[in-house]
User: Fold this.
Amino acid sequence: MNEDLDDPRLTAVGLFAEAYTGLMNRLAAQIEEHRLSQVEFEVLMRLARSPGHRLRMTDLAGQTTLSTSGVTRVVDRMERSGLVRREACPSDRRSSYAVITDTGMQRLSDVLPGHLELVQRWYVGLLPETKLTELLDALRTIRDAVNPCATAGSAESALPA
Assistant:
């Protein structure tokens, strides 16, 4: 038998994937009750938490699991639903911003209480505060290494290193 099958690195990746998948499955049904997909919820969250409640479309793609064309399709769909709007970038005619609308903010406000309850029950509430802080620090280290664009255009990317 190949000794690599017992490598703890495989266990680390497997546990991470299992935890993520399980958590997302727990959260998905509640998000969908509010007529949102998981990716639409993620887009609304990222826009609501960004300076001016907006992000350049390329930055939004960098912060999500979507390609640039995927972000365009999602924003198109969300724009038709009145959740976001596009604004031209005044300094670069080739770029545009996705901006959360009042309707999008209201939908997000409707989703968040139940979402936070589930996040508490199935994620942060399972760990003592010190372990949660360590986990968040570790996740940021990994995220920054594997996805350096993850905070592009956000308040976090504007913080000094």
Observations:
- Strands lie at 54-56, 84-88, 96-100.
- The CA atoms of residues 31 and 112 lie 9 Å apart.
